[in-house]
Amino acid sequence: MRSTKTAEPWVGQGLGPFGVAVLKPYSRTRFATDGSAVLKVYVGIDPEGRRRRETSTVQRAALRGISVPTVLATGCGEAGSWTVFGAVHGTPCSVATRKATEGYIGHVVAVSGMLHRPTASATPGPGWAARTGSPVSTSQFLLDQFSARCRWMPWWAALREALSTIDAHPTVHLHGDLKPEHLLVDGERLHVVDWEASACGPAVLDYTDVLFHLVRDLLYEDVAPARIPVDLADRLPFCGPVLAWRLLLWLDRRRTQDIDLVTTHDIVRLTADGWFVSDARPLRDLDQPTGGITLPRMPTRRSRGVARITPVERAAAAAALGCPLWELGPCAGCDQLMHRYGRYTPMYCRGCRTALNDRR
Ligand SMILES: Nc1ncnc2c1ncn2[C@@H]1O[C@H](COP(=O)(O)OP(=O)(O)O)[C@@H](O)[C@H]1O
Ligand SMILES: [Mg+2]
Fold first, then answer.
1. How far is Cα 248 from Cα 237, in angstroms, rounded to an integer?
2. What's the structural domain count of the chain?
3. If pLDDT is split at 50, 70 and 90, which confidence band does 318 have?
4. How far is the CA of 122 from the centre of ligand 1 (A)?
5. Per residue, what are the HEC states of 50-62?
6. Which of 69, 80, 127, 279 has the fewest beta carbons closer than 10 A?
7. For residue 258, what is the DSSP state?
8. How far is ligand 2, taken at its centre, from the CA of residue 38, in Å?
9. pTM of the prediction?
10. Which of 18, 23, 29 should be mutated for ligand 1, with most atoms under 8 A from CB?
């Protein structure tokens, strides 16, 4: 029989005993029976790389003033790649209610404030440690995370083109996996755990991850799309191309059959990022009388002369027309930007209405 010492090296360091393991595709975690520590064994994709990244990043995150667990012991060998963290106290954030979601998003914004400070030496890639070799662009770093088969999928070129827009964003330190169960609230204190996906890249990566998890988890809980608190998520500056990338990465890793269902058109719509005047109506609009609850949704009209506007132009147009951003849309006749959606709004602009009314 193999000795416990070899099989469980943490025992020799006075750590444990640990309780029942929580099994996930890429990890096994066990809480110490006295609640003082958490043992994590990394399995599946690149266990040793993830162990090194997590143990190195938590130390650097602590230097930024973020409350993180202490590394009590770590190693790799017969027991695989493993780390024992000191347990932090607190209750994980939640998105079960609107109030809880509001609190969670507030905590995300607070953590981002400490994390996403411009860092001159940071270049896009996994982990926070300095990189050797020639730097890659953010879009390349993101595309490299897909399995090889994705390069041959019909949407690949559209995603690659859309992602190139984020190459100009400043590179900052990222948590890489922000979600409610990784933010533990203990009174006034906030502890942040699970740093194994830490990376350097634009801040929109972290924000978009939050939105992705929020929407996915709520849909899994059978929350109707109209009830998703899109207005709260709007506090986070997420980005359409990154959202499309995140969704596709999830499909590639966790729902391998479903990725074949994605079309180029889906990606163009997701990556549009509010740039097209002729966007489909956003979810927040669905509970209005002209929305999807009382009337069937109109089929998406293919854009004829696609008009591109920047977010600033969109904001200016909304201010000039005296309507919320999401009620802007193209005139059904001439595609001119107008107050198109919401209560009592016409489908045609004044000019087109006059022309139509004069028609005999
Ligand atoms: N140091 C810690 N103290 C208290 N709870 C922790 C600690 N580390 C992890 N947890 C809890 O255990 C869960 C799983 O740990 P995590 O590091 O996220 O592993 P995984 O890679 O399996 O997601 C976390 O979501 C968190 O709720
Ligand atoms: Mg986790």
1. 20
2. 3
3. confident
4. 27
5. HHHHHHHHHHHHH
6. 80
7. G
8. 12
9. 0.76
10. 29
